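seq as requested:
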Amino acid sequence: MTVELLIGGREVTAQGNRTFERRDPVTGDVATTASAASVDDALKAVNAAAAAYPDWAATGPGARRMLLLKAAEALEAKTDEIIQLMITETGATGPWAGFNCMLAAGMLREAASITTQITGDVIPVNKPGSLAMAQRKPLGVCLAIAPWNAPVILGVRAVATAIASGNTVVLKASEMCPAVHRAIGTVFQEAGFPDGVLNVITNAPEDAADVVEALIAAPAMRHINFTGSTKVGRIIAQKAAAHLKPVLLELGGKAPMVILEDADLKGAVNGAAFGAFMNQGQICMSTERIIVHESIADEFARAFAAKAARLPAGNPRDKVVLGALVTLDAAEKMDAIIADAVAKGGKVLAGGTREGSVVTATVIDNVTPEMLIYQEESFGPVKPIIRVKDDAEAVRVANDTAYGLSASVYSADISRAMKIADQIESGICHINGPTVGDEAQMPFGGVKDSGYGRFGGKAGIDSFTSTRWVTIEDPAQQYPF
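struct tokens:
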């Protein structure tokens, strides 16, 4: 498949007709040949977005809503095609790809619904005969940088609320899934959005740093949102700060699931398996630390390992639960994590094997702070069980990480669970549910090294608009001189 850039409503080739290849992580075959945008190409996309901005910002909420609803329908109609693209480019399973399309369509409909919720305030004023207001105004051109792991969800999330709020957008596609992210641009075209409202840039991996730096520095660019690793997020935040441009960052995670001794054991096992192994553990909210009260740890570990051992892994084109990791390097990283844990006293209860880029669902018990798997985000299907003595230790271990995105607490005592949840440092916490969960209307984001700002619903309006103070005053008012 060949993918071209989308700039100003037109499909264009990159400068010099440069391209790059994305290979299937399972077969090694070329999945996509994509245009390799230069810095000049990226700046053309910014200029196209800037040219489209005045008219789009002046477009009424009803018209924006109609187009976003049409985009949701167009995305749903393209689901089968996008599923195949995701399988080929990222090694994802069909059900995960289908869920991506379903939730992303919901995000477009949620964005449509907020077009009339971008409201302001009338503020009491001390000056007689005056009216003071706070208005929410679009920011201008926004840069959206989305990752490969949930490419439709996160690609749509990066652009939908921004566009609903009256901004125009340049979406910088992931080098891992250029065709999937370019398909989002096609969806907006088919829905009838004006030229330049959404532009899509694909670039070769070796050009990423220069392209992103140019996009951030472009004078017309007014806001950046990024979903991806904490390492890259720091760089983007620093680049944006040099230009005094705001950023919304949703970064890495090391999500804890705390399981107390009174928890529904079957429910906890099922929630842990879903949170740990959905999309091979390649989700920012993936359960990365299973913290279990020692009095039930043996029973939980047996049941959890048994469930993990039953999860089939293999080519995502087959009927499997776990498909491939996105690259062979990512899969080989799992080997190193497992070896480190075993060398330091960890016990592999299930899995621990790999065939190419496919890694089986792996459970490691007796994990301690000295092990890589205790602190580092695995971003794969290798998960630790950490045993604790009481609630206080459970909270301490849950917070013993630089990250703070999602968390979970399992207990039959809701008051007790709430007390623990209130002490966990995370932007999201679920009680008696897995760490992995998302709905379009929810405020989504983290704390600490997991980033700052929020996507979703009304919180997204705050992220993609600014507040402007406006007054209407008496022209005949008196002045002291």
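The radius of gyration is 24 Å.
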